[in-house]
Specification:
The complex is a heterodimer of chains A (258) and B (308). Chain A is built from 13 helices and no strands. The longest helix of chain A has 35 residues. Chain A is globular. The relative contact order of chain A is 0.14. With 308 residues, chain B is mostly helical. Chain B is 61% helix and 1% strand. Chain B has a two-stranded antiparallel sheet with strand order 1-2. The longest helix of chain B is centred in the C-terminal third of the chain and has 34 residues. The N and C termini of chain B lie far apart (72 Å). At the A-B interface, helix 3 and helix 12 of A face helix 4 and helix 6 of B.
């Protein structure tokens, strides 16, 4: 792999793990996973369900928050501090800079997910006293959550390449919310006609489909996840990420940095 | 002590004192404010709206709503406030968010169906809930059992109970007692033996302590009802034969050639009133009995036994 991309990725990773907000968010996610144990005790027969639902939701939501908060500043902070000029004055192409930043943030999120997942499995072991076969499905849910993070990272980077941090955060979070309603959007498109139908259908396919990547409830109920779904979602996430990154590269290549 | 240290001490003291004062004031305010306003508010009634607000995390929202349902019912039950206006909507939202949350159907029916003070007295809504649950989970034989249970115990609709038990018996892996219950509903629905079978099935098929204790109390009540019925029949036979009301149950025991005066499941002998009614000595120990209670008797809060 391109050594410059790797170096930028590594530096991005190192910078991200120094951010105190990251540790606070991870700690809060672990706290929520632990709290799931107590929620199960004030209800009936849903101890395991609550741990998995609450734990995986915490991993997903906090990961999205981390992705957005770090991602929105990846490019704009470098421009603000003027360190970008130093980097680009080396023989580092602009697209290498974008890809390296993306890989660094993605790596950070994978590591975060690992630590937060330890909290989920710890809470699950506490309520169930042992692991069973269906618990392995949690790994599939975590894998899909990582795919969500890749998409969010690429979107945050896309917006960061041309917009201010505040607007980038608003755009990225809005797309996350809209993406959660992607199925409803497609349903709405089928109810309309004419130009509205075209626009609605286009929008429905353009926004990232996070609802397809959300299998938390299915995993909590030990429903099997087909290999086809895993493969198709992986390809979808990779292609969507590539699309967003390509957009970021196109914008950044033409951006006047003066 | 310099100015900075003085400021630190003052600020820390102010913080602690303000926190303590806020907590004390809040406790007083909670005593003054009526609790019903907070209790019965269901801000979002529509399951579809709640589903949208959950941003795809329907399972977690369902767990939250189920917990809220349990707390709502439990709190009102133990406060002896026997109206449960929000119970059915809470259950509908819970099961709409997660149609595979089996405890919501299983326990929801037992919250909704029984008459107050044991439940909300809404068996029709319990049936609707269970039919929805069966539609969403057709391979779960327990739901058929729970629905049949509602038909049998609350509506005394033995035909519908039998039909549901028969449907459930055809589910792969269903417990064999469903077939037996289906057959019994057709011919022996009102027999004590059928009721005993139903509650024994509830006791054996559940791992939840409260459910097993409830089933145990019902089995004890069935035993008492059966004993009182048999003894009352014996008293009637004595009156017909002797032309007078017996003075005590010893006369009945002698006339029926029993080993002694029959005792209730706690080992306490039954009693006979002056007008020849068979009575249970301690009706409070048997929360679900329908016979053997003195006139005007009002049951208290059920006391559950751990051994039967």
């Amino acid at each position: 792999m391109n050594a410059r991309i790797v170096q930028i990725a590594f530096n991005t990773f190192r910078e991200a793990v120094r951010d105190r907000v990251l540790y606070n968010l991870i700690a809060f996610a672990l706290l929520l996973s632990g709290a799931a144990i107590f929620v199960g005790q004030i209800s009936i027969e849903i101890e395991r369900l609550v741990v998995i639902n609450l734990g995986l939701t915490a991993v997903s939501l906090f990961g999205v928050v981390i992705a957005i908060f770090i991602g929105i500043g990846l490019v704009s902070k470098e421009i603000e501090k003027r360190t970008l000029y130093t980097v680009l004055s080396r023989p580092v192409r602009r697209w290498e800079f974008i890809v390296g930043k993306f890989l660094g943030l993605a790596g950070t999120l994978v590591v975060n997910t690992f630590f937060m997942a330890i909290g989920v499995f710890g809470a699950l072991l506490y309520v169930a006293h042992k692991f069973s076969g269906p618990d392995s499905l949690i790994f599939v849910a975590l894998y899909f959550i990582v795919l969500q993070f890749l998409i969010i990272c690429s979107l945050a980077l896309l917006f960061s390449s041309f917009s201010s941090p505040l607007l980038s955060a608003v755009f990225a979070f809005s797309l996350f919310v809209i993406g959660s309603f992607a199925d409803d959007l497609r349903g709405f498109a089928t109810l309309t006609s004419g130009i509205t139908r075209w626009i609605a259908t286009g929008a429905a396919y353009l926004v990232p489909n996070f609802s397809a990547l959300n299998i938390v409830s299915a995993v909590a109920h030990e429903q099997p996840i087909g290999a086809q779904l895993v493969l198709q979602n992986t390809l979808y996430a990779l292609f969507y990420t590539a699309m967003a990154l390509s957009g970021a590269v196109l914008i950044f290549e033409r951006r006047n940095l003066k | 002590m310099n100015a900075r240290q003085r400021t630190t001490i003052l600020a820390a003291t102010c913080l602690v004192v303000s926190l303590a004062a806020s907590i004390l004031l809040l406790r007083n305010i909670d005593r003054i404010r009526p609790s019903e306003i907070v209790e019965d508010a269901l801000y979002i009634n529509s399951p579809k709206m709640v589903k949208r607000v959950s941003l795809g995390f329907d399972g977690l929202m369902a767990c939250i709503y189920w917990t809220r349902t349990v707390q709502y019912f439990g709190h009102r039950h133990f406060q002896r406030e026997y109206t449960y206006n929000e119970l059915a909507p809470l259950l509908e939202i819970t099961t709409a968010l997660d149609p595979h949350l089996i405890p919501a159907y299983h326990f929801g029916a037992s919250f909704l169906a029984p008459a107050p003070p044991n439940g909300a007295g809404q068996p029709d809504r319990a049936i609707r809930l269970m039919e929805y649950g069966i539609q969403q989970n057709p391979d779960n034989w327990r739901l058929y059992y729970d629905l049949g249970f509602v038909y049998y115990t609350e509506l005394r609709d033995f035909k519908s109970a039998g039909d549901v038990f028969a449907r459930g018996s055809r589910v792969p892996g269903a417990h064999p007692f469903l077939k037996v219950l289906a057959a019994d509903m057709a011919t022996h629905a009102q027999d004590f033996a059928t009721a005993r079978l139903l509650w024994s099935a509830a006791y054996e098929s559940s791992t939840e302590t409260n459910i097993r204790q409830n089933a145990l109390e019902h089995l004890r009540a069935i035993q008492v009802d059966e004993d009182v019925t048999n003894l009352q029949n014996a008293v009637s036979r004595f009156v017909e034969g002797q032309g007078r009301i017996p003075t005590s149950l010893w006369e009945i025991a002698s006339a029926e050639h029993l080993q002694g005066v029959p005792v209730d499941p706690d080992g306490v002998p039954y009693e006979l009133s002056i007008d020849g009614q068979v009575l249970v000595a301690n009706p409070d120990n048997f929360p679900f009995i329908t016979k053997g209670t003195p006139p005007g008797y009002q049951p208290g809060i059920p006391k559950f036994h751990t051994k039967g």
